[in-house]
Description:
alpha/beta, Rossmann fold, 8-stranded mixed β-sheet
Amino acid sequence: MKKKSNILPRLVVFSTLFPNPGQPNAGVFIRERMFRVGKNVPLIVVSPIAWFPGQSLIRRFKPHFRPEAPLQEIQDGVMVYHPRFFSIPVFFKWLDGYFLAISTYRLMKRLKQEFNFNIIDSHFAYPDGFAATLLAKWFSVPITITLRGTEIRHSKSRTIRPFLVKALNSASKIFSVSNSLKKHVVNLGIEKNKITVVGNGVDTEKFYPLEQQIMREKLGLNKTEKVLITVGGLVERKGFHRVLEIMPQLIKKSPELKYLIVGGPSAEGDWTEKLQRMVKELKLQNYVQFLGTMPPAQLKEVLSASDVFILSTRNEGWANVILEAMACGIPVVATDVGGNAEVINNEDIGSIVPFGDKQQLKESIEISLKKDWNKDNIVDYAQDNSWDNRVKTLLSEFKNLTI
């Protein structure tokens, strides 16, 4: 029987997706999760930024391409480093894992001497997880990888899949934000016993219901309007366009319908112009509002003013925003992809529809707009999914790695 070690886990959180001044909403779900862990054990963050000579010229045509970030900063008392790593846009993505490891080696060597980390905690299996397994080998420390959804797409790539599988096989421990993701990588041949499902939680101190009518007055919405809302990066995957496509049919039954779009460009791309053009082509200018990105304090106001949250996404690991919407008392209609069905697991809090089924999506939204929801039950469900239990599990697993 192993003796319990008194060695405290000292973590380096390793992820290319993490909030910074250039992308304040990137990877917020990682910060929410790991900063709570950081209240119990020492941690620092290494969030490398992709770099390529001349990429500033690309920004002249694409202003949101790879925004600048400081080399280091302090967020909520936690040191966050943003070293640059060589990454060729579009081409040779299968090399990103190697470039990421090599480019961060010097910083990690310094942090090993100064901070003496004993675990590397990476997020997304590729390229982050793959690079982290190389670094963990070079510094003789265990490594964890959290599966967050991109693994499904990367496993379909002939060039990336071998690196993805190698990273997962090399990991000391794997966390998955949903059972569906766990099953996916088990089917890739990964040992299921080293995978623990730890879903994301919701911060009920930031997200809670506010008086709907007061919030509507603040937004210039009236009492009789039916309000739909989607929050996320303005990219193809999130499915704003799939909701816009059925808006003309929804308006026929609900003439006072409004659709609030909250979000902006993300690392995946920027569909802002495409979506705005679509609104004009469908003559939806009086029914759709683009509200841009919002901090939690403002977002809970808009969620509280709404009737139904829609997430017609093509792929998802575990969408935090679903629980954030529920914490504000509104039901959710989402596509049956990723972990969505694990979050929306009963008809008292929302509904799940097949991806790509426009008719079912339309009907589910219409039913949700008419249904008399018990908002207290929805809020209670969200509160049962707060971060506390998730963090306990993570801390236990990290401590096991120091034994």
